[in-house]
Amino acid sequence: MFQDNVFRLIIDPPRSAALNMAIDEFLMNEASKPRRIPVLRIYSWEAPSYSVGYFQKIDEVVGKIKASQEDIAVVRRLTGGGWVFHGEDLTFSLVIRYPNPFFSNDTKSSYLKINEALMMGFRELHPKLDFADCKTLPSGRARNGRICFELPACYDLLLRGKKVVGASQRRSAGVVLHQSAVFLGDDKKVLTGKILEGFREKWKIDFEELPLSNDELEKAREIEKGRYSSPEWAIS
Prior knowledge:
Blueprint: E1 6-11, H1 17-31, E2 39-43, E3 49-52, H2 58-68, E4 73-76, E5 84-86, E6 90-97, H3 107-122, E7 129-131, H4 140-143, E8 157-159, E9 162-172, E10 175-182, H5 188-203, E11 206-209, H6 214-228, H7 231-235
Helix pairs in contact: 1-6, 3-5
């Protein structure tokens, strides 16, 4: 399906919350077109920001946010899950058609396969990393309105019982957008290298680094203006 098992790699500079989400949506839209290879985009945030899950009730979430932090950007993700405070994390998105050689249509299995790659990459830095036990976790309904990192989900990565890698997905037109936040230290260059190492080793793939073009950025900015910078989108 993918020529020579090569993924496109985008290592992005820090960007605004709205533009980060718009770029991920643009990449997802592009992936539905013929002959598009999978994309791994690694990025960070130019200012502390909150991202809110697609299905969360914004009035409940924003009240909690404003009580603790003023004048911080809040953006609604295209993916589900709980709300996340970004700033110290390294974030990545994986955009890939499914089914594929790495995981099937099953959502839960895709989380496992992706986090197995991360586990392999991070194991030297953090030998005590472990998977969340699916049998002991609360239901998705019990996590509604919660902070993403407050309660682990199935196959999340834990360090000494604390969730340190969380993720959420959106699936549409045969494409998965997987967004993941990594809280394993502030050396983003080291973490980036370990993420790539894990995918190379576990999935037997390689990467071709190809930054976003000016044309791609312009199209993403159009999405940003039409959706992620809109108050209507945030409160919908």
